[in-house]
Request: fold
Amino acid sequence: MRAAIVGVGIHPFGRAPGKSGMQLGAHAARLALQDAGVEWKDMQFGCGGSYSSGNADALGNELGLTGVAFTNILNACATGGSSLLAACREIQSGSAQLGLVVGFDKHDRGAFNADPSEYGLGPWYGEAGLMLTTQFFGMKLQKYMHDYGITVDTLARVAEKAYQNGALNPNAWRRTPIAFEQIKDSAMVNDPLTKYMFCSPSEGGVALVVCREDIAHRFTHKPVFVSAAAMRTRLAGAFEVYGTSVGLGHIPNATELASRAAYEIAGLGPKDIDIVQLQDTEAGAEVMHMAESGLCAHGEQERMLRQGETRIGGRLPINTDGGCLANGEPIGASGLRQIHEIVLQLRGAAGDRQVPGSPRTGYTHVYGAPGISAVTILQT
Amino acid sequence: MIEAAHPNARSRPIDQHLFTWPANDPALLGSRCRVCHQYAFPANPSCRYCGKLDVETVELPRRGRLWTWTIQRFMPKTPYRSAETEATFVPFGVGYVELPGALRVETRLTENDPRRLRIGAEMALIIYTHRVDEDGTAVVNYAFRPL
Reply:
Protein backbone atom coordinates (compact mmCIF):
# COMPACT_ATOMS: atom_id res chain seq x y z
CA MET A 1 0.00 0.00 0.00
CA ARG A 2 1.52 3.31 -1.12
CA ALA A 3 0.69 6.80 0.05
CA ALA A 4 -0.76 9.24 -2.47
CA ILE A 5 -0.33 13.01 -2.61
CA VAL A 6 -3.76 14.51 -3.29
CA GLY A 7 -3.23 18.16 -2.38
CA VAL A 8 -0.32 20.61 -2.59
CA GLY A 9 0.16 24.19 -1.45
CA ILE A 10 3.06 26.63 -1.40
CA HIS A 11 3.79 30.09 -0.10
CA PRO A 12 6.10 31.81 -2.60
CA PHE A 13 9.78 31.56 -1.63
CA GLY A 14 12.06 34.54 -1.04
CA ARG A 15 11.41 37.28 1.48
CA ALA A 16 8.01 37.73 3.11
CA PRO A 17 8.32 40.85 5.28
CA GLY A 18 5.77 41.12 8.06
CA LYS A 19 4.93 37.41 8.02
CA SER A 20 6.28 34.84 10.45
CA GLY A 21 7.67 31.53 9.22
CA MET A 22 4.70 29.88 10.89
CA GLN A 23 2.29 32.01 8.83
CA LEU A 24 4.05 30.91 5.64
CA GLY A 25 3.43 27.31 6.71
CA ALA A 26 -0.22 28.03 7.53
CA HIS A 27 -0.71 29.69 4.14
CA ALA A 28 0.69 26.62 2.37
CA ALA A 29 -1.41 24.28 4.52
CA ARG A 30 -4.64 26.10 3.67
CA LEU A 31 -3.85 25.90 -0.04
CA ALA A 32 -3.01 22.18 0.16
CA LEU A 33 -6.25 21.43 2.03
CA GLN A 34 -8.22 23.45 -0.52
CA ASP A 35 -6.46 21.66 -3.38
CA ALA A 36 -7.56 18.28 -1.96
CA GLY A 37 -11.05 19.56 -1.14
CA VAL A 38 -10.70 18.70 2.55
CA GLU A 39 -10.60 20.59 5.82
CA TRP A 40 -8.00 20.76 8.58
CA LYS A 41 -10.41 19.04 10.98
CA ASP A 42 -10.51 16.04 8.58
CA MET A 43 -6.80 15.38 9.12
CA GLN A 44 -6.15 12.20 11.12
CA PHE A 45 -2.48 13.10 11.59
CA GLY A 46 0.01 15.81 10.78
CA CYS A 47 3.79 16.04 10.69
CA GLY A 48 6.44 18.51 9.65
CA GLY A 49 9.03 20.95 10.84
CA SER A 50 11.11 24.07 10.58
CA TYR A 51 14.71 24.86 11.53
CA SER A 52 14.38 28.52 12.56
CA SER A 53 10.65 29.23 12.87
CA GLY A 54 9.40 27.10 15.71
CA ASN A 55 7.57 23.82 16.20
CA ALA A 56 5.30 22.90 13.32
CA ASP A 57 2.53 21.72 15.66
CA ALA A 58 2.04 25.36 16.68
CA LEU A 59 0.38 25.74 13.27
CA GLY A 60 -2.70 24.62 15.19
CA ASN A 61 -2.84 28.17 16.54
CA GLU A 62 -3.37 29.36 12.97
CA LEU A 63 -5.43 26.52 11.52
CA GLY A 64 -7.43 25.51 14.60
CA LEU A 65 -6.68 23.26 17.56
CA THR A 66 -8.42 20.03 16.64
CA GLY A 67 -6.67 17.49 18.86
CA VAL A 68 -4.93 16.02 15.80
CA ALA A 69 -1.92 13.69 16.36
CA PHE A 70 0.82 16.01 15.14
CA THR A 71 4.52 15.11 15.24
CA ASN A 72 7.29 17.69 14.94
CA ILE A 73 10.10 16.53 12.69
CA LEU A 74 13.50 18.20 12.46
CA ASN A 75 16.16 16.50 10.38
CA ALA A 76 18.32 19.26 8.90
CA CYS A 77 17.92 19.63 5.12
CA ALA A 78 16.11 16.28 5.08
CA THR A 79 13.28 17.65 7.26
CA GLY A 80 10.79 17.63 4.38
CA GLY A 81 11.84 14.21 3.10
CA SER A 82 11.77 12.79 6.61
CA SER A 83 8.30 14.27 7.16
CA LEU A 84 6.94 12.66 4.01
CA LEU A 85 8.61 9.38 5.00
CA ALA A 86 6.90 9.53 8.42
CA ALA A 87 3.56 10.24 6.74
CA CYS A 88 4.01 7.28 4.39
CA ARG A 89 4.69 4.99 7.34
CA GLU A 90 1.63 6.30 9.17
CA ILE A 91 -0.47 5.40 6.16
CA GLN A 92 1.27 2.10 5.39
CA SER A 93 0.85 0.96 8.99
CA GLY A 94 -2.90 1.36 8.62
CA SER A 95 -3.16 3.68 11.60
CA ALA A 96 -4.44 6.58 9.51
CA GLN A 97 -5.79 7.25 6.03
CA LEU A 98 -5.46 11.01 5.58
CA GLY A 99 -2.98 13.57 6.89
CA LEU A 100 -1.00 16.74 6.31
CA VAL A 101 2.75 17.18 5.80
CA VAL A 102 4.09 20.71 6.21
CA GLY A 103 7.42 22.52 6.24
CA PHE A 104 8.29 26.19 6.54
CA ASP A 105 11.16 28.48 7.51
CA LYS A 106 12.44 32.02 7.69
CA HIS A 107 16.21 32.52 7.98
CA ASP A 108 18.52 35.46 8.46
CA ARG A 109 20.58 36.69 5.53
CA GLY A 110 24.02 35.27 4.79
CA ALA A 111 25.57 31.86 5.36
CA PHE A 112 24.26 29.72 8.21
CA ASN A 113 26.35 29.90 11.38
CA ALA A 114 25.92 26.51 12.99
CA ASP A 115 27.07 25.62 16.52
CA PRO A 116 29.82 22.96 16.48
CA SER A 117 28.55 21.39 19.72
CA GLU A 118 25.27 20.45 18.01
CA TYR A 119 27.31 18.25 15.69
CA GLY A 120 29.50 16.66 18.35
CA LEU A 121 32.44 18.91 17.42
CA GLY A 122 34.67 20.89 19.79
CA PRO A 123 34.54 24.71 19.89
CA TRP A 124 37.96 24.80 18.16
CA TYR A 125 36.33 23.77 14.86
CA GLY A 126 34.20 26.90 14.76
CA GLU A 127 36.92 29.18 16.18
CA ALA A 128 39.34 28.03 13.48
CA GLY A 129 36.88 29.03 10.73
CA LEU A 130 35.92 25.55 9.54
CA MET A 131 32.21 25.55 10.50
CA LEU A 132 30.98 26.52 7.04
CA THR A 133 28.96 24.36 4.68
CA THR A 134 30.18 26.49 1.77
CA GLN A 135 33.76 25.25 2.33
CA PHE A 136 32.61 21.66 2.04
CA PHE A 137 30.79 22.47 -1.20
CA GLY A 138 33.91 24.09 -2.62
CA MET A 139 36.23 21.28 -1.54
CA LYS A 140 34.01 18.44 -2.71
CA LEU A 141 33.57 20.12 -6.06
CA GLN A 142 37.26 20.97 -6.46
CA LYS A 143 38.11 17.30 -6.05
CA TYR A 144 35.28 16.21 -8.35
CA MET A 145 36.28 18.59 -11.15
CA HIS A 146 39.87 17.40 -10.84
CA ASP A 147 38.88 13.73 -11.00
CA TYR A 148 36.20 13.86 -13.71
CA GLY A 149 37.13 16.81 -15.93
CA ILE A 150 34.15 19.02 -15.08
CA THR A 151 34.73 22.63 -16.14
CA VAL A 152 33.65 25.99 -14.69
CA ASP A 153 31.49 26.43 -17.82
CA THR A 154 29.37 23.49 -16.70
CA LEU A 155 28.85 25.08 -13.28
CA ALA A 156 27.80 28.34 -14.94
CA ARG A 157 25.39 26.45 -17.21
CA VAL A 158 23.69 24.85 -14.20
CA ALA A 159 23.19 28.26 -12.55
CA GLU A 160 22.08 29.85 -15.84
CA LYS A 161 19.43 27.13 -16.22
CA ALA A 162 18.25 27.58 -12.62
CA TYR A 163 17.62 31.31 -13.05
CA GLN A 164 15.93 30.74 -16.44
CA ASN A 165 13.59 28.21 -14.83
CA GLY A 166 13.02 30.52 -11.86
CA ALA A 167 11.89 33.24 -14.26
CA LEU A 168 9.11 30.88 -15.40
CA ASN A 169 8.01 30.05 -11.84
CA PRO A 170 5.67 32.54 -10.12
CA ASN A 171 6.60 31.07 -6.71
CA ALA A 172 10.37 31.47 -7.16
CA TRP A 173 12.51 34.10 -5.42
CA ARG A 174 15.03 34.84 -8.22
CA ARG A 175 12.89 35.53 -11.27
CA THR A 176 15.40 37.33 -13.47
CA PRO A 177 17.68 35.32 -15.76
CA ILE A 178 21.39 35.89 -15.16
CA ALA A 179 23.75 35.66 -18.13
CA PHE A 180 26.32 32.85 -18.36
CA GLU A 181 29.27 35.27 -18.38
CA GLN A 182 27.91 37.22 -15.43
CA ILE A 183 27.62 34.02 -13.38
CA LYS A 184 31.16 32.98 -14.32
CA ASP A 185 32.65 36.41 -13.63
CA SER A 186 30.84 37.17 -10.36
CA ALA A 187 32.88 37.34 -7.14
CA MET A 188 34.61 34.15 -6.06
CA VAL A 189 33.17 32.96 -2.72
CA ASN A 190 34.66 29.52 -2.04
CA ASP A 191 36.80 28.42 -4.98
CA PRO A 192 35.71 27.27 -7.56
CA LEU A 193 32.25 28.65 -6.72
CA THR A 194 31.23 32.21 -7.49
CA LYS A 195 28.46 34.29 -5.92
CA TYR A 196 25.78 33.38 -8.49
CA MET A 197 26.60 29.68 -8.22
CA PHE A 198 25.38 29.63 -4.60
CA CYS A 199 21.86 29.61 -3.19
CA SER A 200 21.03 31.69 -0.10
CA PRO A 201 18.96 30.98 2.99
CA SER A 202 15.42 32.31 2.33
CA GLU A 203 11.80 32.02 3.45
CA GLY A 204 8.87 29.89 2.36
CA GLY A 205 6.33 27.23 3.21
CA VAL A 206 5.01 24.07 1.53
CA ALA A 207 2.32 21.57 2.51
CA LEU A 208 1.01 18.29 1.11
CA VAL A 209 -2.19 16.36 1.82
CA VAL A 210 -1.47 12.64 1.72
CA CYS A 211 -3.79 9.65 1.89
CA ARG A 212 -4.00 5.93 1.36
CA GLU A 213 -3.51 4.99 -2.29
CA ASP A 214 -6.90 3.27 -2.66
CA ILE A 215 -8.94 6.30 -1.60
CA ALA A 216 -6.95 8.91 -3.54
CA HIS A 217 -9.59 9.32 -6.24
CA ARG A 218 -12.05 10.68 -3.67
CA PHE A 219 -9.91 13.81 -3.49
CA THR A 220 -8.43 14.29 -6.94
CA HIS A 221 -8.51 12.82 -10.41
CA LYS A 222 -4.72 13.18 -10.64
CA PRO A 223 -3.14 11.62 -7.55
CA VAL A 224 0.63 11.26 -7.39
CA PHE A 225 1.84 8.11 -5.67
CA VAL A 226 4.88 7.90 -3.41
CA SER A 227 6.59 4.81 -4.81
CA ALA A 228 9.60 5.30 -2.55
CA ALA A 229 10.76 7.54 0.28
CA ALA A 230 14.14 6.75 1.78
CA MET A 231 16.45 8.58 4.17
CA ARG A 232 20.03 7.76 5.11
CA THR A 233 22.75 9.27 7.30
CA ARG A 234 26.52 9.14 6.78
CA LEU A 235 28.90 6.20 7.02
CA ALA A 236 32.16 6.33 8.98
CA GLY A 237 34.91 7.79 6.83
CA ALA A 238 32.66 9.19 4.07
CA PHE A 239 33.35 12.69 2.71
CA GLU A 240 30.48 14.71 4.20
CA VAL A 241 29.78 18.19 5.65
CA TYR A 242 31.71 19.14 8.81
CA GLY A 243 33.96 16.11 8.50
CA THR A 244 37.18 16.60 10.47
CA SER A 245 38.57 13.54 8.75
CA VAL A 246 37.79 11.33 5.77
CA GLY A 247 38.77 7.68 5.34
CA LEU A 248 41.11 6.46 2.62
CA GLY A 249 39.49 5.03 -0.51
CA HIS A 250 35.91 5.74 -1.62
CA ILE A 251 33.19 5.28 0.97
CA PRO A 252 29.63 5.82 -0.37
CA ASN A 253 28.04 9.05 0.86
CA ALA A 254 24.54 9.58 2.27
CA THR A 255 23.17 10.58 -1.15
CA GLU A 256 24.40 7.38 -2.77
CA LEU A 257 22.94 5.28 0.05
CA ALA A 258 19.52 6.99 0.04
CA SER A 259 19.31 6.91 -3.74
CA ARG A 260 20.04 3.18 -3.96
CA ALA A 261 17.52 2.46 -1.21
CA ALA A 262 14.82 4.46 -3.00
CA TYR A 263 15.33 2.67 -6.34
CA GLU A 264 15.16 -0.66 -4.56
CA ILE A 265 11.94 0.22 -2.70
CA ALA A 266 10.30 1.48 -5.90
CA GLY A 267 11.57 -1.44 -7.99
CA LEU A 268 12.80 1.11 -10.51
CA GLY A 269 16.14 2.28 -11.87
CA PRO A 270 17.56 5.61 -13.02
CA LYS A 271 16.48 4.92 -16.61
CA ASP A 272 12.83 5.00 -15.49
CA ILE A 273 13.08 8.59 -14.22
CA ASP A 274 11.51 11.33 -16.39
CA ILE A 275 12.05 14.45 -14.28
CA VAL A 276 14.35 15.25 -11.41
CA GLN A 277 14.76 17.60 -8.43
CA LEU A 278 18.26 17.60 -6.91
CA GLN A 279 19.76 19.48 -3.98
CA ASP A 280 21.53 22.40 -5.67
CA THR A 281 22.69 24.50 -2.76
CA GLU A 282 25.39 25.39 -5.26
CA ALA A 283 25.80 24.65 -8.94
CA GLY A 284 28.38 21.91 -8.42
CA ALA A 285 26.08 20.04 -6.04
CA GLU A 286 23.57 19.51 -8.85
CA VAL A 287 26.36 18.21 -11.11
CA MET A 288 27.70 15.75 -8.51
CA HIS A 289 24.26 14.65 -7.33
CA MET A 290 23.33 13.72 -10.91
CA ALA A 291 25.94 10.99 -10.89
CA GLU A 292 25.50 10.04 -7.24
CA SER A 293 21.82 9.50 -8.00
CA GLY A 294 22.77 7.14 -10.81
CA LEU A 295 21.30 9.42 -13.47
CA CYS A 296 24.55 9.57 -15.44
CA ALA A 297 28.16 8.41 -15.29
CA HIS A 298 30.74 10.53 -13.44
CA GLY A 299 32.00 13.12 -15.91
CA GLU A 300 29.08 12.74 -18.34
CA GLN A 301 27.52 15.92 -16.90
CA GLU A 302 29.95 18.01 -18.96
CA ARG A 303 28.36 16.86 -22.22
CA MET A 304 24.80 16.75 -20.83
CA LEU A 305 24.88 20.37 -19.70
CA ARG A 306 26.54 21.51 -22.93
CA GLN A 307 23.79 19.84 -24.95
CA GLY A 308 21.00 21.19 -22.72
CA GLU A 309 19.79 17.72 -21.72
CA THR A 310 18.74 18.89 -18.25
CA ARG A 311 16.74 21.89 -19.46
CA ILE A 312 12.94 21.88 -19.42
CA GLY A 313 12.77 20.69 -23.03
CA GLY A 314 15.70 18.28 -22.65
CA ARG A 315 15.98 14.52 -22.22
CA LEU A 316 16.15 14.66 -18.39
CA PRO A 317 14.86 17.99 -16.99
CA ILE A 318 16.41 18.85 -13.61
CA ASN A 319 15.20 21.47 -11.11
CA THR A 320 12.44 22.78 -13.37
CA ASP A 321 11.24 25.23 -10.70
CA GLY A 322 14.69 26.83 -10.44
CA GLY A 323 15.84 24.64 -7.55
CA CYS A 324 17.51 26.06 -4.46
CA LEU A 325 19.49 28.45 -6.66
CA ALA A 326 16.37 30.37 -7.74
CA ASN A 327 14.22 29.66 -4.66
CA GLY A 328 16.75 29.95 -1.86
CA GLU A 329 16.70 27.48 0.98
CA PRO A 330 14.20 27.71 3.81
CA ILE A 331 15.42 24.46 5.39
CA GLY A 332 12.09 23.11 6.62
CA ALA A 333 10.30 23.83 3.34
CA SER A 334 12.98 23.08 0.78
CA GLY A 335 12.54 19.31 0.41
CA LEU A 336 8.77 19.66 0.17
CA ARG A 337 9.21 22.33 -2.54
CA GLN A 338 10.88 19.69 -4.66
CA ILE A 339 7.95 17.33 -4.15
CA HIS A 340 5.46 20.15 -4.83
CA GLU A 341 7.16 20.78 -8.17
CA ILE A 342 7.17 17.12 -9.20
CA VAL A 343 3.46 16.82 -8.33
CA LEU A 344 2.64 19.84 -10.54
CA GLN A 345 4.75 18.44 -13.38
CA LEU A 346 3.18 14.97 -13.17
CA ARG A 347 -0.28 16.55 -13.10
CA GLY A 348 0.62 18.55 -16.22
CA ALA A 349 -0.13 21.71 -14.24
CA ALA A 350 3.27 23.42 -14.15
CA GLY A 351 2.27 26.27 -16.45
CA ASP A 352 5.02 28.01 -18.42
CA ARG A 353 7.63 25.58 -17.14
CA GLN A 354 5.66 22.39 -17.88
CA VAL A 355 7.89 19.61 -19.17
CA PRO A 356 6.52 18.35 -22.50
CA GLY A 357 5.61 14.71 -23.15
CA SER A 358 3.56 13.92 -20.02
CA PRO A 359 6.29 12.85 -17.55
CA ARG A 360 5.16 9.94 -15.36
CA THR A 361 8.00 9.33 -12.89
CA GLY A 362 9.82 11.93 -10.83
CA TYR A 363 12.81 11.80 -8.45
CA THR A 364 13.59 14.18 -5.59
CA HIS A 365 16.78 14.44 -3.55
CA VAL A 366 17.95 16.53 -0.62
CA TYR A 367 21.31 16.56 1.10
CA GLY A 368 22.44 18.37 4.23
CA ALA A 369 24.77 18.62 7.19
CA PRO A 370 26.34 16.62 8.66
CA GLY A 371 25.74 13.99 5.98
CA ILE A 372 22.05 13.22 5.63
CA SER A 373 20.03 12.60 2.50
CA ALA A 374 16.41 11.88 1.60
CA VAL A 375 15.20 10.63 -1.78
CA THR A 376 11.66 10.11 -3.05
CA ILE A 377 10.33 8.56 -6.24
CA LEU A 378 6.90 9.81 -7.28
CA GLN A 379 4.63 8.37 -9.98
CA THR A 380 1.27 9.01 -11.58
CA MET B 1 52.20 34.14 4.64
CA ILE B 2 51.43 32.30 7.87
CA GLU B 3 54.53 31.49 9.94
CA ALA B 4 55.12 28.68 12.41
CA ALA B 5 54.62 29.58 16.11
CA HIS B 6 57.58 29.22 18.46
CA PRO B 7 57.10 26.48 21.08
CA ASN B 8 58.81 28.58 23.78
CA ALA B 9 56.52 31.59 23.41
CA ARG B 10 53.59 32.02 25.81
CA SER B 11 50.93 30.09 24.01
CA ARG B 12 48.11 27.62 24.38
CA PRO B 13 46.59 25.30 21.78
CA ILE B 14 43.13 26.10 20.42
CA ASP B 15 42.16 22.68 21.83
CA GLN B 16 44.18 20.52 24.26
CA HIS B 17 43.68 17.29 22.32
CA LEU B 18 44.37 18.20 18.68
CA PHE B 19 48.18 18.14 18.55
CA THR B 20 51.28 17.81 20.72
CA TRP B 21 52.22 21.24 22.12
CA PRO B 22 54.54 22.72 23.12
CA ALA B 23 56.83 20.56 21.00
CA ASN B 24 59.81 21.12 18.73
CA ASP B 25 58.38 18.68 16.20
CA PRO B 26 54.61 18.77 16.83
CA ALA B 27 52.22 16.14 15.47
CA LEU B 28 48.46 15.87 15.11
CA LEU B 29 46.85 13.45 17.55
CA GLY B 30 44.38 10.95 16.18
CA SER B 31 42.92 7.73 17.43
CA ARG B 32 43.33 4.25 16.06
CA CYS B 33 40.97 1.40 16.79
CA ARG B 34 42.70 -1.66 18.20
CA VAL B 35 39.88 -3.84 16.86
CA CYS B 36 39.36 -2.68 13.25
CA HIS B 37 42.53 -0.53 12.93
CA GLN B 38 40.70 2.50 11.48
CA TYR B 39 41.92 6.03 12.26
CA ALA B 40 40.03 9.14 13.34
CA PHE B 41 40.97 12.79 13.76
CA PRO B 42 40.61 14.33 16.27
CA ALA B 43 41.09 11.40 18.64
CA ASN B 44 37.74 9.93 19.62
CA PRO B 45 37.03 7.80 22.71
CA SER B 46 35.30 5.20 20.54
CA CYS B 47 35.66 3.95 16.97
CA ARG B 48 33.28 5.42 14.40
CA TYR B 49 33.65 2.40 12.17
CA CYS B 50 32.89 -0.40 14.65
CA GLY B 51 31.66 1.43 17.76
CA LYS B 52 34.14 -0.31 20.05
CA LEU B 53 35.78 1.57 22.94
CA ASP B 54 39.17 -0.08 22.49
CA VAL B 55 41.03 2.83 20.86
CA GLU B 56 44.50 4.32 21.36
CA THR B 57 45.71 7.87 20.80
CA VAL B 58 48.46 8.06 18.18
CA GLU B 59 50.61 10.73 16.55
CA LEU B 60 49.62 11.11 12.90
CA PRO B 61 52.12 11.48 10.03
CA ARG B 62 53.48 15.05 9.76
CA ARG B 63 53.52 15.07 5.97
CA GLY B 64 50.97 14.18 3.33
CA ARG B 65 49.46 15.19 0.00
CA LEU B 66 46.79 17.79 -0.72
CA TRP B 67 43.56 15.89 -1.47
CA THR B 68 41.33 18.90 -2.10
CA TRP B 69 41.12 22.59 -1.18
CA THR B 70 39.14 25.83 -1.34
CA ILE B 71 39.71 29.43 -0.32
CA GLN B 72 37.48 31.00 2.35
CA ARG B 73 36.96 34.42 0.80
CA PHE B 74 34.37 35.95 3.14
CA MET B 75 34.83 36.41 6.87
CA PRO B 76 32.93 33.66 8.72
CA LYS B 77 30.34 34.70 11.31
CA THR B 78 30.71 33.51 14.91
CA PRO B 79 31.68 30.89 16.09
CA TYR B 80 34.78 32.02 14.09
CA ARG B 81 37.19 33.70 16.54
CA SER B 82 40.11 35.74 15.33
CA ALA B 83 41.44 39.25 15.90
CA GLU B 84 40.23 40.26 12.43
CA THR B 85 37.48 42.64 11.41
CA GLU B 86 35.60 42.70 8.09
CA ALA B 87 38.13 45.33 7.00
CA THR B 88 41.24 43.38 7.99
CA PHE B 89 40.02 39.86 7.13
CA VAL B 90 42.49 37.91 5.03
CA PRO B 91 41.04 35.02 2.98
CA PHE B 92 42.43 31.67 4.05
CA GLY B 93 42.90 28.28 2.46
CA VAL B 94 41.11 25.17 3.73
CA GLY B 95 41.71 21.65 2.54
CA TYR B 96 42.07 17.98 3.26
CA VAL B 97 45.53 16.47 3.44
CA GLU B 98 45.94 12.74 2.91
CA LEU B 99 48.28 11.32 5.55
CA PRO B 100 49.74 8.08 4.16
CA GLY B 101 48.41 4.89 5.69
CA ALA B 102 46.13 6.79 8.07
CA LEU B 103 43.40 9.12 6.83
CA ARG B 104 42.64 12.53 5.29
CA VAL B 105 42.41 15.42 7.75
CA GLU B 106 40.55 18.68 7.32
CA THR B 107 42.87 21.61 7.89
CA ARG B 108 43.55 25.25 7.35
CA LEU B 109 46.24 25.89 4.76
CA THR B 110 48.98 28.48 5.10
CA GLU B 111 48.47 29.37 1.45
CA ASN B 112 45.52 31.41 0.12
CA ASP B 113 46.68 31.77 -3.48
CA PRO B 114 44.97 29.19 -5.75
CA ARG B 115 47.98 29.30 -8.08
CA ARG B 116 50.11 27.78 -5.34
CA LEU B 117 47.69 25.00 -4.41
CA ARG B 118 47.61 21.80 -6.42
CA ILE B 119 45.81 18.54 -5.65
CA GLY B 120 48.50 15.90 -5.03
CA ALA B 121 51.13 18.41 -3.85
CA GLU B 122 53.28 17.52 -0.83
CA MET B 123 52.26 19.28 2.39
CA ALA B 124 53.70 19.51 5.90
CA LEU B 125 52.16 20.27 9.28
CA ILE B 126 52.85 23.55 11.07
CA ILE B 127 51.48 25.10 14.24
CA TYR B 128 50.65 28.79 13.76
CA THR B 129 49.32 31.62 15.92
CA HIS B 130 45.60 31.83 15.20
CA ARG B 131 44.93 34.82 17.46
CA VAL B 132 46.37 36.51 20.54
CA ASP B 133 44.13 36.69 23.61
CA GLU B 134 43.78 39.89 25.68
CA ASP B 135 46.30 38.66 28.25
CA GLY B 136 48.90 38.26 25.51
CA THR B 137 48.66 34.47 25.21
CA ALA B 138 48.98 33.21 21.66
CA VAL B 139 46.24 30.74 20.73
CA VAL B 140 47.88 28.29 18.33
CA ASN B 141 46.20 26.05 15.77
CA TYR B 142 47.40 23.53 13.20
CA ALA B 143 47.67 24.08 9.45
CA PHE B 144 49.44 22.51 6.48
CA ARG B 145 51.86 24.29 4.17
CA PRO B 146 52.97 23.33 0.66
CA LEU B 147 56.54 22.02 0.57
